[in-house]
Design a protein that fits this description.
The structure holds two protein chains of two kinds. Chain A has a single domain, classed as Rossmann fold, CATH 3.40.50. In chain A, the strands form two sheets. A nine-stranded mixed beta sheet of chain A has the order 2-1-3-4-11-10-9-6-7. By secondary structure, chain A is of the alpha/beta class. Chain A is globular, with a radius of gyration of 18 Å. In chain A, helix 3 packs across helix 4. Chain A is about 25% helix and about 20% strand. By secondary structure, chain B is of the alpha+beta class. In chain B, helix 21 runs parallel beside helix 22. The chains are: A alpha/beta, B alpha+beta. Chains A and B meet through helix 1, helix 3, strand 5, strand 6 and helix 6 of A and helix 1, helix 3, strand 14, strand 15 and helix 15 of B.
Chain lengths: ~300, ~1000
């Protein structure tokens, strides 16, 4: 039961407009479950928060779902590397089911700790259908500390990722201590060549971050903030789309609102770029085309 | 046989942890180190086969992309090597998760004796480093001897085959648990035993305790359960329950207050009842949103028709002063258990912090246990890990430097939770216990850690303070428990819940037993970290991350099943009864048998002498100064002062956006670097209603009068809420008092009676402002011994006492988050207003502090004129007439006009002569007076008439405008430019002091 659950939300009752069912993993120190489920519901999916143990003991089956979300948090406190123990547990206990899930054409999203988990399982980068090798890592930020900050992101034009379809630029918050994307040069080259680089940090003026702090907040190689597998159906990113659920989540919303009001316009009601990432997933799974080209952010304009 | 696994980053990768150590060595001590590389060490004390060892190394503990590892010492060049590990019995969180991972991966179970211990070695390249310097880096930067051990190796001493050796900080207690009866033949004898055992029994309580145990009827009942003299378990229980920390004896004390000037005396009986309970209950009758106050772990307010919020705050000063990281971590994780244990339990939605420490660059003669710089770094990191790893946004905080906090630092932590109004159709804020209900302990296990924490918090800090009460919090275990307990709550399985904080089971079980009027505890069922604890230790241990829950017999199976699903340990340790007795068994033998009503009757009230000397009487006066000429330089220097300048480096380490609820963030403006006035959250993602939270600290005013300190602190918290658009009709408060010792003593506390008078005055102000502003006190705590003895240069010790400090937190609601207002001006051409009256009130100001003065004219709060202005401003905001709003706080108008300009990233031109004043204050008084009740707002030109009409009858002055250029111009009489600079320069100096810190 959630606070205020006396108000019935039909979307929580199992059904959803799209029929898409999403599973949000919880437990063992994960912590973005409520807002991730909310984002999925805003995007038209039904979302269930499922404890990792319920998936492992079989009381909940992956087969009922089309979208699996590894969420943010500190799984097993991240004591031995972010996402490491979660990855070991998932891989050893339900690794086969995960591979079946992906091969059946479903979608997997990993956000922050979820991204770290995906790369440690090997679901990313998933070169040549190999979903078990660790080829990339998210290591401690160059700045040496946990950091909460909004970043500017450029969606790579050649990306195959279904989650960012039709999007070009967006802003999202990052909140992590281990987000520096690292790999061997050959892996980096292959990611680029395959269209598997999805998001790069950039400067507010649209120039590449070029590794410069704080635009690239963690020292990631080639400013990489998110990658997908070769099919575009498995996507991991360090920034938090589920923290941009509503325009008032953005640090500049009050200035936007003032300017809109003074030019006779009203505050936007369309979905935020954060929610659009989830909408793209729902659209893909329900057989619709991707979203429109312009994000609502360009409608209100930055500073 | 134990195995030592070493893990490090690959050579070619930079090591941010090592770089941080090198940076701090330079920053703290001026010691230059070429490079530092860290090696993580896992000492696995379990019988694993070679194959098992290799597979856990490869599959769990080594990242093939970034790390190398070996069961032999890794070869990493160094000049000096510092190994740091925990002392036996200190919570090793990473060791525990390593066990969990190995068990899960290999599908084995570690025995009670098997474990994994983590430690680290740092390889320093610094050929010129001396052993003394290496020792200093070890002892003053990398390790704290209270919780850690270390060893320094020179490269010549290093055996590359043996490495650091095998080190197992295992607790081995070759001890049979024993209950000891205590002789009570005389008061003196019991007092002596209290001292020997560190019971901290108050001497006044001793006759009452003896009288009870000597009572013939009591003796007869006790004989029936094979008890005679009181046992150590019983005396420890009484000591905990009667401690100032748990029982608030100071606040419930009797104060004989004399005004030395008038000679008038009065007796103030029970500060808590007179100044907190009375106004709060009166306000609860007027305000239907006040749901539950004054009895539970946190106060409860109504958020909306079907949601309640819970709020409380406390301090963790003594432990943080000893071990900054562990103390602060335990503090924030501990406060999160209070909302979890309020009503039937709430989900945590935010936290905040307040740090009061000595000057970061202190270089004087006194030797605090931890240098303020190191202490601050530690408490910042403790709250960071506690908040971030709990998945709870840390949305607000404040840091204050003052030499008075060198004796003992202050670490305030505040928490807010949310719960549905009804659980299974019953009010969630209410709870009960039915005789026969199970007593269930959930969460962590019990060890020797945290014994006598509450009694230590009830004493001044000195060299004999036992270190055993310092702990390392474990947010991971607690987060699992939090998720579990909410699920259990929603299934209706929780009848009653409370947390194990100060006093451990003794407090949680002892206090909850009053709800059924009795309890029977089987102490041998309590899961322990290691064997060998005495019964009294199990009973009072403050081992963290535990809750006590009453579960009805018909629900216990389901409760324990859910607990297993969430990987949380829960144990039935007894049952509630209606016998009127606290009855404790250990392996079937009674070791405590005490009437619960003993604690509610008969103990003498504490007595305090309080003598007030007015500021005039103490010789305080305004300084004799001629006015400054270079006002631009002055303002720039003010912005650089530690209590004014940017502390973005702290804020950014805290996740303030998890849960997706952030509306008004802690850092705002186009550069996202200027603090907001208050935090606003949208706790229910399906609603547009917001929750606003603000806090304030102004202890500097206590140097003049703690009455006005209190009133101004509360007014600041209120204005912070008003500034973001919160509803003045719904404001709840949390008072956190931190006071130096007020029990007068001719040698050790010669001014104790004055400090006691300050406390009485502070409480009077608290009540006055609560009633006039309509603020019920939803929660509050007091910490009464903020003093320490610091060694000086010649072996002498100095008592250092904190300023009388109140942190006031305030909470409110916002009907529609889209109506929130932020401090940043939105457009060039907007009109700049100052609301409120500026007076000759520089007493205790940042401006006077700049010159080493205190002054006398402390700012005063005038609710009769302030509150109507706040209401009108709120109304104008609701109509969309206000573009930006910011309160005028510490540093006065000049500093806060600069904040507004920086927040907007736009220029600002203002005419100081237009500011509404009382009398004829000088320009520096207009610029730096900290008069309460004021705001700086900006208004779109087209709304000028509507805004002024809305504010009719209030002191409202249009003083200038926002400009496109970057100029920051303040004009005085005859249009002369008193301050002339650019916003870029303001920002540069304001960010300079701590700008390099990350």
């Amino acid at each position: 039961m959630q606070e205020g659950s006396a108000v019935k939300d039909p979307r929580k009752e199992g059904g959803s407009a799209s029929g898409v069912r999403a599973l949000v993993l919880t437990g063992f120190g994960l912590n973005c479950d409520h807002e991730t489920a909310h984002a999925l519901r805003l995007a038209g999916a039904s979302a269930e928060r499922v404890h990792i143990n319920a998936l492992i003991d079989g009381s909940v089956s992956l087969e009922r779902f089309q979208l699996l979300v590894f969420i943010g948090g500190f799984s097993w406190a991240d004591d031995h590397g972010a996402g490491v123990i979660q990855a070991v547990r998932m891989k050893t206990r339900i690794g086969g089911e995960l591979l079946d899930f992906i091969r059946s054409g479903n979608l997997v999203l990993g956000i922050c700790n979820g991204f770290q988990t995906l790369v440690n399982i090997g679901l990313l980068p998933g070169f040549d259908g190999d979903y078990t090798s660790r080829r990339v890592a998210l290591m401690a930020n160059d700045c040496g500390n946990f950091r909460d900050q909004w970043v500017n992101l450029l969606v790579q034009g050649d990306s195959r990722c279904v989650f960012t379809s039709g999007m070009d630029r967006l802003e999202l918050p990052i909140r992590h201590g281990e987000g520096k994307f690292t790999c061997e040069p050959g892996v980096l080259e292959k990611l680029s060549r395959n269209g598997q680089v999805v998001l790069r940090y950039e400067r507010p003026d649209g120039e590449p971050a070029g590794g410069a702090f704080p635009f690239n907040p963690n020292g990631s190689l080639q400013d990489i903030a998110g990658i997908c597998d070769a099919t575009g159906r498995v996507f991991g990113l360090m920034p938090h789309p589920e923290a941009y659920l509503h325009w008032t989540n953005h640090p500049d919303w009050a200035r936007w609102k003032s300017r809109l009001r003074r030019s006779g316009r009203t505050f936007p009601s369309e979905p935020t770029p954060g929610v659009r990432i989830f909408q793209n997933a729902v659209a893909y799974l329900s057989g619709e085309a991707g979203g429109s080209g312009s994000t609502a952010a360009s409608a209100v304009g930055g500073d | 046989m134990p195995h030592r696994l070493e893990i490090s980053l690959k050579n070619e990768l930079p090591d941010p942890l090592g770089q941080g150590v090198a940076r701090k060595a330079l920053d703290y001590f001026g010691i230059a180190i070429d490079t530092v590389r860290a090696v993580d060490i896992l000492t696995i004390d379990a019988d694993l086969s070679a194959r098992q060892l290799e597979s856990v190394r490869d599959d769990i503990f080594t990242n093939p992309v970034t790390q190398v590892s070996s069961y032999r010492p890794l070869s990493i060049p160094f000049d000096w090597l510092i190994w740091v590990g925990y002392r036996p019995g200190v919570r090793d969180n990473a060791g525990a998760t390593a066990v969990e991972a190995i068990e899960d991966y290999l599908q084995i179970r570690f025995t009670e004796e098997q474990a994994v211990y983590t430690s680290r070695r740092f390889c320093l390249r610094a050929p010129d480093l001396s052993r003394d310097q290496a020792d200093r880096i070890a002892g003053e930067l990398l390790a704290n001897d209270i919780i850690q051990q270390w060893q320094v190796f020179h490269r010549m001493d290093w055996n590359p085959e043996e490495g650091i050796g095998i080190r197992l900080p295992k607790v081995l207690l070759d001890h049979r648990p024993t209950v000891t009866p205590v002789a009570i033949d005389s008061d003196d004898r019991l007092r002596q035993i209290s001292d020997e055992r560190n019971l901290a029994l108050n001497p006044q309580d001793i006759p009452t305790i003896r009288a009870y145990f000597l009572e013939p009827s009591v003796r007869k009942e006790r004989r029936d359960v094979n008890l005679g003299d009181p046992t150590d378990v019983e005396l420890e229980y009484l000591s905990q329950a009667r401690s100032d920390h748990c029982n608030h004896n100071t606040f419930r004390g009797r104060f004989h207050y004399t005004d030395e000037e008038t000679g008038l005396s009065e007796t103030v009986d029970n500060l808590f009842r007179s100044f907190i309970e009375v106004p709060t209950l009166a306000l609860q009758k007027q305000k239907p949103w006040v749901v539950s106050v004054l009895w539970d772990n946190a106060g409860v307010g109504r958020f909306d028709a079907d949601t309640l919020y819970t709020i409380t705050g406390e301090t963790h000063n003594s432990p943080s002063n000893m071990e900054a990281y562990g103390g602060a971590l335990t503090g924030i994780v501990g406060i999160y258990r209070d909302p979890m244990g309020t009503g039937k339990g709430s989900r945590l939605i935010m936290g905040s912090y307040g740090f009061c420490v000595g000057p970061r660059d202190y270089s004087g003669e006194l030797k605090p246990r931890l240098h303020p710089r190191r202490l601050l770094d530690g408490v910042i990191e403790g709250v960071r890990d506690g908040g971030n790893k709990s998945g709870i946004p840390t949305v607000a905080g404040q840091t204050l430097f003052h030499p008075g906090y060198m004796g003992k630092c202050l670490v305030f932590v505040t928490a807010v939770g949310l719960m549905p109004a009804l659980i299974k159709g019953k009010p969630a804020d209410q709870k009960e216990i039915v005789p026969g209900d199970h007593v269930v302990m959930c969460g962590g296990r019990v060890g020797k850690d945290g014994i006598h924490g509450v009694t230590a918090a009830s004493e001044s800090f000195d060299e004999h303070t036992p270190a055993g009460h310092v702990q390392i919090g474990d947010p991971y275990t607690q987060k699992k428990m939090h998720d579990f307990l909410l699920e259990a709550r929603d299934e209706g399985l929780v009848r009653f819940i409370t947390d194990n904080g100060g006093g451990g089971l003794s407090s949680s079980v002892g206090e909850s037993a009053r709800f059924s009027n009795g309890v029977l505890v089987e102490l041998d069922r309590v899961p322990l970290k290691y064997a060998g604890l005495d019964q009294w230790e199990i009973w009072v241990s403050e081992s963290q991350e535990r809750m006590t829950v009453a579960v009805a017999p018909e629900h216990i199976d389901r409760f324990l099943e859910l607990s297993r699903k969430h990987a949380v340990e829960s144990t039935v340790i007894g049952r509630y009864t209606d016998t009127g007795k606290l009855h404790i068994l250990y392996e079937g033998e009674t070791c405590a048998y005490v009437d619960l009503k003993l604690l509610t009757a008969g103990f003498p009230q504490w007595e305090f002498e309080a003598r007030w000397l007015s500021p005039e009487h103490r010789g305080l006066c305004e300084p004799a100064m001629r006015p400054p000429v270079d006002h631009t330089r002055l303002l720039l220097d003010m912005l650089e002062r530690p209590n004014i300048c940017s502390k973005e480096w702290i804020t950014r380490q805290y996740d303030h956006e998890v849960q997706g609820t952030s509306v008004v963030k802690p850092l705002l403006g186009p550069m996202r670097d200027v603090p907001g006035d208050a935090a606003v959250l949208r706790p229910r993602l399906d609603s547009r209603k917001g929750l606003a939270f603000a806090q304030a600290l102004l202890p500097q005013y206590s140097a003049i009068d703690a009455y006005h300190m209190t009133a101004c602190t509360m007014d600041e918290a209120v204005r912070r809420l008003i500034a973001v658009g919160a509803d003045p009709a719904h404001m709840g408060g949390v008072d956190n008092f931190c006071w130096p010792d007020i029990q007068a003593h001719p040698e050790t506390n010669p001014d104790g009676a004055f400090k006691a008078a300050q406390l009485v005055r502070s409480c009077r102000a608290l009540k006055a402002i609560c009633l006039s502003y309509g603020i019920p006190l939803l929660s509050g705590k007091d910490s009464m011994y903020v003093d320490g003895y610091l060694a000086g240069r010649y072996g002498e010790f100095h008592k250092v006492s904190a300023l009388e400090t109140l942190q006031f937190s305030a909470v409110s609601v916002v009907e529609d988050i889209e109506d929130c207002v932020t401090p940043d001006p939105k457009s060039p051409g907007d009109l700049l207003y100052v609301l409120g009256v500026t007076r000759n009130e520089l007493g205790g100001s940042e401006y006077y502090e700049r010159f080493g003065y205190i002054g006398k004219n402390v700012p005063q709060v005038r609710p009769e004129s302030f509150l109507p202005l706040y209401r009108s401003l709120h109304h104008a905001m609701g109509r969309g007439l206000v573009e930006s709003a910011h309160g005028v706080y510490r540093g006065g108008l000049a500093v806060h006009l600069a904040m507004v300009a920086m927040a907007g990233g736009l220029g600002l031109h203002a005419d100081l002569t237009a500011v509404t004043v009382e009398g004829s204050p000088s320009e520096e008084q207009i610029l730096y007076s900290e008069s309460a009740g004021r705001f700086i707002v900006t208004i779109a030109p087209e709304n000028r008439d509507a805004f002024e009409a809305a504010m009719a009858g209030h002191p409202v002055a249009c003083v200038g405008r926002i400009t496109e250029d970057d100029g920051f111009i303040l004009r005085g009489v005859d249009e002369t430019e008193r301050v002339s600079t650019t916003v870029a320069e303001l920002r540069e100096v304001w960010k300079r002091p701590f700008g390099d810190l990350i």
